[in-house]
Design goal:
Blueprint lengths: L3 H10 L7 H7 L5 H5 L1 H8 L7 E3 L1 H12 L5 H15 L20 E3 L2 H4 L3 H4 L15 H15 L4 H8 L2 H7 L12 E3 L9 E2 L2 H7 L1 H13 L6 H38 L3 H16 L8 H18 L6 E2 L3 H4 L1 H9 L5 H17 L7 H6 L8 E5 L11 H12 L6 E6 L5 H13 L5 E4 H10 L4 H5 L2 E3 L3 E3 L11 E4 H9 L25 H29 L7 H5 L2 H6 L14 E7 L1 H17 L5 H9 L6 H8 L9 H21 L6 E6 L5 H5 L29 H11 L8 E4 L2 E4 L6 H17 L4 E6 L2 H9 L8 E3 L4 E3 L5 H9 L2 E2 L3
Parallel strand pairs: 1-2, 4-5, 6-7, 7-8, 11-12, 12-13, 13-14, 15-16, 15-19
Antiparallel strand pairs: 3-11, 8-16, 9-10, 17-18
Length: 837
């Protein structure tokens, strides 16, 4: 904890800046609302906050032992049996003070292992977990022995990554990886499927709350009994699926019963009558849900928590499992209990914050170098969605929506990842409460625009009611839990690297004379802008081709290595057709794949600078530009300044924005033509997470004045310091660079940073509401905010212990600033701090 008095006096000795609510909390200014008004949750937080995560091996051990025994059986059946084996044997914990049950590992902060994904990384990377940047972890010598002697050896040769690595042609492999084993990414075109079994995902939690797994099991059993005994399809495909649903339903119900027994055992030994009653209530709830429909709000929350935690035993999604529209599916029982006088808002918030504590103790640990570098600071995106519209198109805001916002302002950790859906008819009160929460300064909520997302979803074939009912899932993505069926991890493409290939005849300074692209010739021979632009399109097309080739391999292979019987049991289409969710194509499914493009702003500004200086103004020769870039601008500071002063994306400047529009259009046209061969919409997306940092480490100096090996621009944000016309200029550039007539597009992540003075007081709230209205009117996909003083970030770098609890918005998630690498910290500091709105 901070020495708040010393911190506060230090700050007040300086010329006092306006502070965000979070900065005041860190500096000990004002009343400590959380500890006084949330005493139970405060006690829970004190038991784990700040502890180094520990890797628990039980999930991996019991999963492995079961898989050994079921070789040769259908994969979905093997997976269900493995989950039953885990549910039968994994240690059951119920935390002190908790009102909910359902943790997956040892006390404190913990992570679990997925050897079916990462087993071949253990030998290389596990020993370094305590040293790596961006998120360390501890593993005991005994657990390390179990991994190396029992778990690891079984998975040798069996992981998806090993088989994928062997299937990739050498030409593509050289672009993806630096080593033959495929463990060291080159950060040019990156596949992501080898460190996660699925893209982000969200369940239909309301289905379990209303029906329970006994009813889901009953449905599967009735359909199993009705199968045609003479049908080979029924025998070989439908029967294993339905048997798996039955087994996994039994597994999660068994897991819940074991928690009930544990709570009863603890209650029998408990001396405090209040805690004894709480434990007996936990036991009662665990015997009701998730087996049967929830009868109370408390049971609905417990049912939801069981499902989201058990799904983490089932698989590693790209961003842990999301929570869906909690203010919608929890609302009926919330209203029932409030109307009956059995629930108050403080009690409801306490239960929700028990969920947040349970999620905060589970840390998604990536073992591979790639997974770690893309997900710094124990990244997590278990989005809770509030607001938006009903399936009938009416505003969906309710009392729970406001309760979630209040919780987010008062809960001191960066859990959950709160996302608010907004639209043209969002109530003024809702936007005002969103603005006040953003002003607090922890990066919440991130905003999603119904006016953009719903039409594009319908255009791709989604039913209207389901499009209205979409939920945020993961970083900046969306899902329809019973319509979406595409789960294959996509690819990341380094856009500034494509430009460097033009300037070096298909080569990059980082990799010497090795050909990393197409030989487009000496750039000095590209006499016109059209010549240069066409050479760039050749390099870009080559990387787009590679991306589609890799995605083809990925889509064909994954269903042979991953199954998700519980997730499939909660999906209407999977149940209808008796197909696992990881099946390549599911009838009636909404299949929208993706490639993420990294360094969008960096690329636009670099192309604009080359066009302006070399080809139009002729203030630079190509020779001079290449010399300056090769020297990383040492001795060429005047050239660097000239390049920086060229038109830049993020300022509502048509010169730069039109280049961004053209780059995106070429990408979308290519994907429109060839992506169809994958049987999906191959979407253009800009969601780097933290990939813009390692991707920047392989790109030398760029023509926008950026120094070599430094981070690229993130998402569709402007380059560092390039957005000089205020945040509205950033919105307008985002709008102008978008190809509205193309439908194979998806999330455009947009980060903005405000000085707290900018949004101070009622006037600042009004400005922020108006800004959000502009975001809605422009029909942009996403926006999120850091509201923080640059001086606070610099102080946190100098004295991390004092600023241990400082939360910042990184990408589609928030994290503790001190858990990030220096490169990423500097990236956050370098983002433009807007002082006017």
């Amino acid at each position: 904890m901070l020495d708040s008095s010393a911190c506060a006096s230090c700050c007040l000795d300086q010329e006092s800046p306006t502070l965000s609510g979070q900065e005041k909390r860190i500096l000990g200014i004002g009343e400590d609302v959380f500890s006084k008004e949330h005493p139970r949750v405060h006690k829970i937080v004190q038991t784990f906050d700040g502890l180094e995560p520990v890797l628990d091996v039980e999930r991996a051990l019991y999963f492995t032992r079961s898989m050994k025994e079921t070789e040769g059986q259908p994969l979905n059946l093997r997976w269900a049996k493995a989950l039953y084996h885990i549910a039968s044997n994994i240690t059951i914990y119920i935390d002190d003070y908790q009102l909910l049950a359902g943790r997956l590992g040892c006390k404190g902060r913990y992570g679990i292992l997925y050897p079916e994904i990462e087993g071949d990384f253990y030998e290389t990377f596990l020993d370094k977990l305590g040293e790596r940047e961006g998120g360390t972890a501890f593993i005991s010598p005994e657990n390390m022995r179990i991994i190396k002697e029992e778990i690891g050896p079984y998975w040798k040769g069996k992981t998806y990554h090993e088989n994928f690595n062997a299937a990739v042609p050498q030409e593509l492999h050289d672009i993806l990886f630096m080593d033959e084993a495929g463990t060291l990414p080159r950060y040019l075109v990156n596949e992501t499927a080898s460190w996660r079994s699925s893209l982000q995902w969200v369940h239909d939690y309301g289905k379990v709350i209303k029906r329970g797994f006994m009813d889901i099991r009953r449905e599967a059993q009735e359909r199993l009994d009705a199968l045609d005994p003479n049908s080979p399809t029924a025998y070989h495909e439908k029967r294993p699926f339905l048997e798996a649903v039955i087994i996994v339903s039994d597994a999660i119900m068994l897991w819940a019963r074991r928690h009930a027994e544990k709570a009863e055992e603890m209650a029998a030994a408990e001396k405090d009558p209040v805690r004894k009653a709480e434990l007996l209530l936990i036991a009662e709830n665990c015997r009701q849900v998730p087996a049967y429909p929830a009868k109370t709000f408390h049971q609905a929350v417990q049912s939801q928590f069981f499902v989201q935690m058990f799904s983490r035993l089932e698989q590693r999604t790209g961003t842990t499992i999301s929570n869906g529209r909690m203010d919608q599916y929890l609302y009926p029982l919330y209203k029932q209990d409030k109307d009956n006088g059995k629930l108050t808002d403080p009690q409801a918030m306490e239960l929700l914050e028990c969920v947040w504590c349970g999620m905060a103790q589970f840390i998604e640990m990536y073992i591979s170098a790639q997974g770690t570098s893309f997900n710094q600071g124990y990244a997590h995106w278990e989005a809770v969605t509030i607001g938006g519209q009903t399936p009938e198109g009416e505003d969906a805001t309710n009392e729970l929506s406001y309760l979630f916002l209040k919780s987010k302002r008062e809960f001191p950790l960066h859990y959950p990842d709160l996302a608010a859906r907004v639209h043209a008819r969002s109530p003024e009160r809702f936007l005002a409460d969103i603005a006040e929460t953003i002003k607090f300064g922890t990066g919440y909520p991130k905003l999603f625009n119904d006016e953009e997302i719903i039409p594009i979803t319908i255009a791709k074939g989604a039913p209207l009611a389901e499009a209205y009912d979409y939920t945020v899932s993961g970083c900046t993505e969306t899902r329809m839990p019973n319509r979406d069926t595409y789960t294959s991890g996509g690819l990341y493409i380094n856009m500034p690297a494509e430009l460097e290939l033009v300037l070096n005849n298909g080569r990059m300074k980082k990799f010497g004379d090795k050909l990393m692209g197409v030989e487009t010739g000496d750039p000095r021979n590209l006499k016109t802008w059209e010549d240069f632009w066409n050479a760039f399109l050749v390099q870009q097309s080559n990387y787009l081709r590679i991306a589609l080739d890799i995605q083809y391999i990925t889509n064909k292979m994954r269903q042979k290595f991953f199954a998700v019987p519980m997730s499939s049991s909660l999906h209407d289409l999977c149940m209808k057709y008796c197909l696992d969710l990881h099946t390549e194509h599911i009838p009636e499914g909404y299949e929208s794949g993706l490639a993420d493009f990294i360094g969008y702003g960096t690329l636009i500004d670099s192309l604009a600078a080359i066009k302006k200086t070399v080809y139009e103004d002729k203030s630079l020769t190509m020779d001079k530009l290449l010399e300056a870039l090769d020297a990383d601008f040492k001795g060429y500071e005047n050239v660097q300044e000239l390049l920086k002063n060229c038109p830049c994306y993020g300022n509502n400047d048509p010169y730069a924005d039109s280049i961004g529009h053209a780059v995106e259009r070429h990408t979308m046209k290519f994907f429109e033509k060839y992506g169809k061969e994958l049987g999906i919409y191959m979407d253009t997306r800009y969601v780097p997470v933290t990939a813009h940092v390692p991707f920047g480490r392989v790109v030398s100096a760029s023509a926008n004045g950026r120094k070599a090996w430094t981070p690229l621009s993130d998402g569709t944000s402007a380059s560092h310091g390039a957005d000089v016309n205020g945040p509205t200029g950033v919105l307008l550039s985002n709008d102008a660079s978008k190809n509205r007539d193309m439908i194979n597009r998806a999330a455009r992540m947009l980060n903005l940073k405000f000085n707290p003075k900018t949004v101070e007081g009622r006037t600042g709230t009004r400005r922020l509401i108006d800004f959000i209205r502009s975001f809605i009117d422009l029909k942009l996909w996403h926006v999120q905010f850091n509201v923080i003083n640059r001086s606070t970030l610099l102080a946190a770098q100098k004295d991390p212990q004092k600023y241990r609890s400082l939360i910042v918005r990184v990408a589609g998630y928030s994290a503790y600033f001190v858990d990030l690498t220096p490169d990423l910290q500097n990236d956050l500091i370098a983002r433009t701090e807007h002082s006017e709105l």
